[in-house]
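Note to self: keep these together.
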Amino acid sequence: MIERIDKSKKYGLEDVFDYKKHIINKNEINQDLDDYLTGKIPHGFKSTISVIDNHFLCKRNEFYIVTGKKGQGKTTIYQILQLIFTISNNLIWVVAFQENSSWSMKLNLMNYILGDFANNVKKTNPELFKKAEQWLDKHFIFIKVDDIKTATEVAKGLINDGVDVHGMLLDPINSFKNGWQDTGNGYADGVAASLELLKFTKDVCSVHITQHPNMSGQRQEGAVSSYQAEGGWFLNKAHNTCAIHRESGSSLNQIRVEHVRNKHTGGNQTTTENPIILEWQPTKINVFMMETPQFKENDIIGYLVDKYEILGKREKKELKEREELPTPTLNEAFPKQVDF
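Structure:
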């Protein structure tokens, strides 16, 4: 009889951990694969704006990063992206803004869904103003935290209380403390935070972060890429990376989708020469691709507000008035006191 060798004793591994619990059941994988092939695993949430949906979708349990220079609109542009997906899909977000006041960020959102300056609507149509305010209160939960770990704990608490949180936005990630470890070694602490955020993303809800480029990127002419992020700890963990750029004095914001990890569920990179363009005004956003401006989609938020009737069904006269939106001067569009 051949004696069976106890390998744990042979290799001195009497206290070895239970490796079997880390092996994914092949039947579970096969079931997930079959669900995808038969359409049971859906693509990411769409905005119903084709220019955007061809490249960028809002997916569950994925990690999104957007990189942009200070003052070039990354916060505002990301708010716009959040808003169009929220209107289309009834999503709920936890948001933390470290360099901007919560009320100013909410004001941005109010202006867009009202299609007018909020202070005007509050005076002329307080009922409509209240509807917009209540809708935002339902879908955007503003939190005040100093570190990333606390933000994740707040999101977990809300979910445990029954709130269907789709994702969390931290803006910008560079201005939050770590929370898991703050040893003073920036690289080590950043790596630890990136691993914790990736785990949180997979286990709890999607995470969206904005980030500054490093100093050389901030000073360079032209657009930066996600590879120039300050620290760079999050890049390899992300499922989706984008870079945002705006030329000085322009209202045209470029969104370059640089990497989409899971194309099976939608989305694709843009080319350097053909980014998505968001044409910014304080109450109206138009969108097109750089190389095909003739296919511009105008007032995309106003279109979605009417399509999904988030402020109620309005008369045709009201809809016509919404189309005649104010065109601001450059100083009105980008006032110096506002830091994006």
